[in-house]
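Deliverable D2.4 — example input (structure tokens):
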């Protein structure tokens, strides 16, 4: 007798990865109910690669996703009454799910499940839709690779500075000292203009020495390009990483910083993400912005459209956020434009303080809700 996992392959591969991880100790053979289009995309291979499934244990059953008869006949050809079946009907077209459900629902050797995609839960449909909780957690790497996403070796992955340094920089920044603002803007302009510069003389920038002393960043008259990048924005990404990791008590395999990602099979989709993490098997994306003023000129719109485009590469349940320490528009017209764009693109703006704009939350309030949810 074999324990067979029956999985419907679709673009939303994460549900099958979750299912396999949850029942891996009970599964000996995998049936991938798949289609030509899914195989051309590589969805089956992404699942196998993510979980390192032995190829000899995976049987692909190619079906016509629009034919109940075809799907039923293919299942009849493989079905053996002496085996037991764990059936996941979460993926595929509605017709595929119906066909698989109808085939197995009267069979006493089959248990049918459905993953809701929310609250870490799944339903046992054989037991009157009894709710159960997923015990196995998905890592960030597993989530990404299950969708054919490659993490480039050049990615930062973990912070390069300490949380204490990021906290010190945070305190200096929110004081909004004009001398610091001017200094950091000139430093940002310098490294953007000169892509090859590796070392920067501290004395070339007014107030830079005082800022470095205030945050206790050691130097010998020069700072590296990486330090300059840190001072002009990277620090907020690292502060955000540390704060989220601390508050939500995340493991390092569920949160990362500075990831350069590439969609397999599409060579020109490389994109970078500031902070990404997995919570209750859901993906969260946070972009960070350290501007003292939010307006058309400071590229807020570019963040919105970038995140919206990138969400579509990651699946149905990814959630995107922009965290800014900048001030928001107060006039009704620009404020309404911002509100409408955030709402349309399903992106939440996170701010230091709570503001009265739809699709906007305070960063700490948002974190508290996640921690208590």
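Example output (designed residues):
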């Amino acid at each position: 007798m074999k324990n067979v996992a029956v999985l419907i392959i679709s673009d939303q591969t994460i549900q099958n990865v979750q299912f396999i991880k949850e029942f891996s100790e009970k599964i000996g053979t995998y049936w991938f109910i798949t289609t030509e289009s899914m195989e051309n995309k590589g969805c089956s291979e992404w699942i196998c690669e993510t979980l390192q499934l032995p190829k000899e244990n995976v049987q692909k059953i190619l079906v016509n996703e629009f034919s109940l008869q075809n799907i039923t006949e293919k299942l009849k050809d493989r079905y053996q009454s002496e085996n037991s079946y764990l059936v996941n009907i979460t993926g595929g077209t509605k017709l595929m799910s119906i066909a698989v459900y109808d085939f197995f629902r009267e069979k006493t050797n089959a248990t049918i499940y459905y993953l809701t995609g929310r609250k870490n839960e799944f339903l046992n449909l054989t037991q009157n839709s009894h709710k159960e909780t997923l015990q196995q957690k998905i890592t960030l790497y597993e989530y990404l690779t299950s969708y054919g996403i490659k993490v480039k070796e050049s990615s930062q992955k973990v912070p390069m500075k300490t949380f204490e340094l990021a906290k010190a920089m945070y305190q200096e920044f929110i004081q909004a000292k004009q001398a610091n603002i001017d200094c950091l803007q000139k430093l940002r302009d310098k490294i953007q203009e000169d892509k090859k510069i590796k070392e920067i003389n501290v004395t070339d920038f007014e107030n830079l020495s005082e800022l470095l002393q205030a945050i206790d960043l050691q130097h010998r008259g020069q700072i590296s390009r990486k330090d300059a990048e840190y001072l002009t924005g990277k620090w907020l990404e690292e502060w955000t990483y540390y704060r989220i990791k601390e508050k939500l008590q995340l493991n390092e395999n569920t949160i990362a910083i500075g990831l350069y990602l590439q969609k397999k099979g599409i060579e020109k989709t490389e994109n970078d993400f500031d902070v990404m993490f997995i919570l209750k098997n859901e993906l969260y994306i946070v972009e960070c912005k350290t501007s003292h003023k939010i307006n058309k000129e400071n590229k807020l719109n570019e963040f919105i459209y970038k995140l919206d485009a990138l969400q579509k590469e990651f699946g149905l349940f990814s959630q995107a956020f922009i965290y800014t320490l900048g001030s928001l528009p107060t006039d009704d017209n620009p404020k309404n434009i911002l509100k409408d764009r955030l709402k349309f693109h399903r992106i939440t703006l996170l701010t230091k303080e709570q503001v009265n704009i739809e699709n906007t939350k305070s960063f700490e309030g948002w974190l508290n809700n996640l921690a208590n949810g």
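The chain has a mean pLDDT of 89.
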